[in-house]
Amino acid sequence: VQLQASGGGLVQSGGSLRLSCAASGFNVNYYAVGWFRQAPGKEREGISCISSNGRNTYVAESVKGRFTISRDSAKDTIYLQMDNLKLEDTAVYFCTKSRYYRVVGCPRWPGSDGMDYWGKGTLVTVSS
After folding, report:
1. Which is nearest to 50 in space by CA: 98, 114, 83?
2. Is 73 helix (H, G, I), strand (E, B) or coil?
């Protein structure tokens, strides 16, 4: 199993980025995939998750209305569209795979203990 996050970079406050998570070694139609982030000196935070059937999505209150998760099953890729970025969105963003096979929703999200594989992360830096 591998999850490769990309698309991070430097962006001005109010700008947009789209992160991609290329999944391999498992079928994204059978496992939920989530995005987490960790800022320097802060705890890891669950940002968004998409269920195995793609019909259920979850977004943290801190990014609701600004971030959108989606999936292209044909490409085994999960996206995180981030709009109206704020300084506090600066963090390393990770995509993760749920440990639960074909379970409805995103079990135990926004906690990280429901996830079993993590990508290396991509850095998002928002400047003023």
Report:
1. 98
2. helix
CB 110 within 8 A of CB 46: yes
- Average pLDDT over the chain reads 97
Looking up tokens 């850095």 gives: 123
Give the separation between CA 122 and CA 53, rounded to whole angstroms: 25
Secondary structure of 14-52 in the HEC alphabet? Answer: CCCEEEEEEEECCCCCCCCEEEEEECCCCCCEEEEEECC
- The Cα 78–Cα 81 span in angstroms is 10
At 19 the pLDDT is 98
What is the chain's percent helix, strand, coil content, to nearest 5? 5, 50, 45
Name residue 93's beta-bridge partners: 37, 122
